[in-house]
Design brief:
Layout lengths: L2 H30 L3 E7 L9 E6 L3 H18 L5 E4 L5 E5 L3 E6 L1 H7 L1 H4 L4 E2 L5
Parallel strand pairs: 2-5
Antiparallel strand pairs: 1-2, 1-6, 3-4, 4-5
Length: 130
């Protein structure tokens, strides 16, 4: 293995660690803002789209929009560029995409309908409790 290969592997693991740290901090933010059933799924090695998916249920569309804004601010502070934010017209599902981390904020019945946890059942759940 060349020195360049070793350096790039080191950067990859550092980037993965930074992604995990950001994902854990984002999960804690969801819990701090009273989102329910917060789950952080590790998709590394499973998905080619992202490394982590963060799923939480909100109590109202206003709360979910506010949390989405705060997640965007947290990403900016951490150097994670928000690629895109998308939501349905009724704000029952808000997605904030940071490439490595994709955050899904759902109204509870919409979350049950899409059941992302079952879709990614072969992923591992990341513990993020303080």
């Amino acid at each position: 293995m060349t020195e360049l290969d070793q350096e790039s592997m080191g950067e990859g693991s550092r980037a993965s660690s930074d992604s995990l740290d950001f994902a854990v901090e984002a999960a804690r933010l969801l819990e701090d803002r009273h989102c329910t059933e917060v789950q952080l799924l590790d998709l590394r090695g499973i998905s080619q789209v992202c490394d982590f998916i963060l799923i939480g249920s909100g109590t109202s569309d206003r709360q979910m929009r506010s949390v989405a804004d705060e997640i965007g601010t947290l990403g900016k502070e951490r150097g994670a560029t928000r690629f895109r934010t998308n939501n349905d017209p009724a704000s029952t599902w808000i997605i904030v995409d940071f490439i490595d981390l994709v955050v899904h904020l759902f109204e509870p019945s919409r979350r049950a309908y899409y059941d992302l946890e079952d879709l990614w059942s072969d992923s591992s759940v990341v513990e993020f409790a303080r």
